User: What shape does this take?
Amino acid sequence: MSACIVTAAAPPKETYRLIAPVAPGTARLAREFVTASLVAAERQPLIENARICVSDAVANVVRHARVPELSVEVTVRAASVIVGVRDDDPGRLPWPAARPHGECGGRGLTLVRRLSHASGIRWVWDELTLVGKQVWFELREGDPEQVVT
Assistant: This one.
């Protein structure tokens, strides 16, 4: 008896990576990197939301993580783009803290959730040791909230 096995190939993807120091100017560098990655991948409609989201994720690392560097990864898939910002400080979680009435700030991850199709946090492990975290967000053309410039 002959068997026929059909397998589906994983959709093609392109991945771009940036490693940068944790410094005040890194958010701007991350925005430019994400912009260049999306232009190279011909995903210009996603640029504005990607710039806002990556800027907020990087700003959280700069403000709260105690690490010398971070990484930004842009993965381009057929139907979506996933951007991740990683730091190697597993002890400082990226959840919003309570803020006094009238105080600004602390809204970055809420904005990321609003502008992206999906978002979350991935823990980064080295075998059995927790070594960091990655805040990620997924963008697709036609997301509910597009930024108007």
Summary: Residues 9 and 78 are 13 Å apart (CA to CA). The first strand starts at residue 14 and ends at 21. The chain has a mean pLDDT of 85.
